[in-house]
Amino acid sequence: MFVLGLTGSIGMGKSTTAAMFREAGVPVHDSDAAVHALYRGAAAPLVEAAFPGTLQNGEIDRARLAARVIHDAAALKRLEAIVHPLVRAGRAEFVAKARADGADLVVLDIPLLYETGCESEVDAVLLVTAPEEVQKSRIAARPGMTGAKLAAIIAKQMPDTEKRRRADIILDTSSGHAAVAQHVQDLIAAIRTGRVKSRDHA
Ligand SMILES: CC(C)(COP(=O)(O)OP(=O)(O)OC[C@H]1O[C@@H](n2cnc3c(N)ncnc32)[C@H](O)[C@@H]1O)[C@@H](O)C(=O)NCCC(=O)NCCS
Ligand SMILES: Nc1ncnc2c1ncn2[C@@H]1O[C@H](COP(=O)(O)OP(=O)(O)OP(=O)(O)O)[C@@H](O)[C@H]1O
């Protein structure tokens, strides 16, 4: 089974590209969605213990939590120490299940793939990217997003130029939905016919 990592900085088009793989029948694991689910379940009491007042009506309120961690590096580190191991375990379970089900290809959408050293979990990394102006205008359109919040998130992510240097496959999502969908189809075919090689995991 080929495990394709999908990553890219905020607003570069991970979720949109992941949806295209899903539509093609490829199982996709979404780490951001896994975090959000954990806040409605296993991680809720742990996060409330570390950040009292963030638990509201039985689940972690992400806006309240963001306000506590987004401009406080030490607090974000404490949150990541709670959340990342749980997300990683969930991903491993997802891969094991897909393997047992006989899947030939899965996609792991991991926003912080490089930042958290997850390269060894995947056979190849697909990086979605776009010019900075496109990235910024996409994110500015999101409700609740401010210039300060965006700058704080970008500062915590590895620069796109560095990700480009490391990635196995680069996909520019500013070329539009149809072109990206075609690239996704081509990539799936290339993986299935052995034309994309697994990186050495040394
Ligand atoms: C700070 C939180 C509460 C904000 O929630 P909110 O719903 O507003 O944002 P959302 O989760 O959709 O994330 C928005 C963007 O920021 C990125 N991002 C989230 N956490 C981080 C982080 N620790 N470092 C860098 N980028 C991050 C996401 O990948 C996404 O691109 C939330 O992002 C969070 O719990 N982050 C810590 C867990 C984490 O590291 N998640 C990243 C994927 S495992
Ligand atoms: N191929 C594409 N063509 C045109 N627009 C796109 C394309 N891919 C993404 N977009 C647009 O860019 C925006 C951000 O895309 P998306 O939500 O997929 O990014 P993301 O990388 O998952 O973001 P985040 O890191 O916040 O989760 C969306 O408004 C989406 O419609």
From TrEMBL:
Its main location: cytoplasm. Keywords: ATP-binding, Coenzyme A biosynthesis, Cytoplasm, Kinase, Nucleotide-binding, Transferase. It is found in: Cytoplasm. GO terms for biological process: coenzyme A biosynthetic process. ATP binds at G11, M12, G13, K14, S15, T16. It is an enzyme of class 2 (transferase). GO terms for cellular component: cytoplasm. One of its GO terms (molecular function) is dephospho-CoA kinase activity. The keyword Cytoplasm applies. Pathway: Cofactor biosynthesis; coenzyme A biosynthesis; CoA from (R)-pantothenate: step 5/5. Its EC number is 2.7.1.24. Belongs to the CoaE family. Catalyzes the phosphorylation of the 3'-hydroxyl group of dephosphocoenzyme A to form coenzyme A. This is Dephospho-CoA kinase.
